[in-house]
Amino acid sequence: ILLDKDGKRKHTRPTFSGQQIFALEKTFEQTKYLAGPERARLAYSLGMTESQVKVWFQNRRTKWRKKHAAEMATAKKKQDSETERLKGASENEEEDDDYNKPLDPNSDDEKITQLLKKHKPGGGGLLLHPTEGETS
């Protein structure tokens, strides 16, 4: 037992063997919480106190929650970016809707020219109305 400078008992951190940690981790995979009798059995079988097992499980749950929260945050970011990507794609599709609609014979040539320029580099090289002197 170690004493601090005031003569009080100083608690040292227990070091667990690889076998003890392995058994604790395996148990934790099966259940995140141990009831009193389960904790007592596990502590006895590993040569640990019930208090040590209890604290180990508390600390392990905290670590598990942090990791789980980080994974959830990463998944949410990935989902949000995918949603944004799909949203951007649908906005582009909405812009293309005008191009894919049948042409209104009463629409002005300027609107048609704009659509062609937007979707075909160089305006597509199409003439809508032949100018004077040109034949179709």
UniProtKB/TrEMBL annotation:
Residues 67-136 are annotated as: Disordered. InterPro entries: HD, HD_metazoa, Homeobox_CS, Homeobox_NK-like, Homeodomain-like_sf, HTH_motif. GO terms for biological process: cell differentiation. Keywords: DNA-binding, Homeobox, Nucleus. It is found in: Nucleus. GO terms for molecular function: DNA-binding transcription factor activity, RNA polymerase II-specific; RNA polymerase II cis-regulatory region sequence-specific DNA binding. Its main location: nucleus. Residues 9-68 bind DNA. One of its GO terms (cellular component) is nucleus. Residues 77-90 have a biased composition (Basic and acidic residues). Residues 7-67 form the Homeobox domain. Residues 127-136 have a biased composition (Low complexity). This is NKX61 protein. It comes from Bucco capensis (collared puffbird).
